[in-house]
Design brief:
The chain has 166 residues and is of the alpha+beta class. The chain has 4 helices and 7 strands, in the order E-H-H-E-E-E-H-E-H-E-E.
Length: 166
Amino acid sequence: MTSSTPPASTDVGIRPGRADDAAPLAELFWRVREENASTIPGIVHPRETVEPFLASVLDADEVWVATVGERPVGFLAVAPDGDLDHLYVARPHTGAGLGARLVRLAQQRHPEGLSLWVFASNTGAVRFYERHGFVVVGGTDGDNEEGAPDLRMRWSPEGAPAPPPE
């Protein structure tokens, strides 16, 4: 008998990203973006460019990879400036607290605060980030490579002054 219940987030390990994660993370990135095509714009770059892009992210950003066994099922990347650049979780693992675990990890590691961009059409992600203390501090009408409206969100720990909107 199979279960439609997502795996408990405790069944998932979280470890630092490694250079050899580029290929599986590129596949995960592509798959999650395709699965969510109804709420976020498609990737504007050819598929073969995604792996080199993720290799550069692994080289430059702080990356955390969520795994079941050795198989990546999610990842988070935070740039040196505190921008949460990527948070992707495979559909079978959404709704089990994995995204929340990754965001809490980023918040613990970056107590000075975090910022991110999210597509305005991705209302589920906006609500998710709001539940984790992020607030909208700005946005654009599509000043990005996808040409889609987006929102700038910021998390600041309680008591710390929030930076001015960008």
